[in-house]
Amino acid sequence: DQQVKQNSPSLSVQEGRISILNCDYTNSMFDYFLWYKKYPAEGPTFLISISSIKDKNEDGRFTVFLNKSAKHLSLHIVPSQPGDSAVYFCAASAGGNQFYFGTGTSLTVIP
Amino acid sequence: DTGVSQNPRHKITKRGQNVTFRCDPISEHNRLYWYRQTLGQGPEFLTYFQNEAQLEKSRLLSDRFSAERPKGSFSTLEIQRTEQGDSAMYLCASSFKGLAVRETQYFGPGTRLLVL
User: Fold this and answer.
1) Which of chain A's termini has less CB crowding within 10 Å, N or C?
2) What gap in Å lies between CA A31 and CA B58, rounded to an integer?
3) CB contact under 8 A, B48 and A98
């Protein structure tokens, strides 16, 4: 049972434009959410996180939005750069023990 | 380099053989996680340790899999009598879990296992 879902396997965006990656979850007990970026042949790298007490967290070009009523979060990258091309995973946990990951979205930023 | 390290990076073995992977976490981290990732999927939780105690195991972890973290530092994951379905990337992550600290996991580069 996939508790964290990323329904778009891939996304292409022009350099300089906004990239929006989406993630849905089913478990209302999730209270902490993270985004990771993964390049080929490397492990996932932590990008940004958000607690369920917030609806927005920003770090440089990366902003995560959380809509608890819709059980939806999104990652915005502005402006997108070619180096952002990677697979992005969202992850969630309830109480901070086991983390559940989505299946990933492959982002391609076109120069 | 003070990140999470994993050895070996690649392992090819024949069906029925045993394999062992090692993970060295970030030194001040008290939690260590093992995940398995197959093509087109996200990391799937296998097990985690807090210090030397193994606190949770996924039902994905059959009795052919065993993990240890004997001194609360490095960890090993052993797969006995490997099967072709065990072919995957095995990821290790570490984190610091404190009373008032939100946990963020930092991943190693993974060990890619191919069972022939």
Assistant:
1) N
2) 20
3) yes
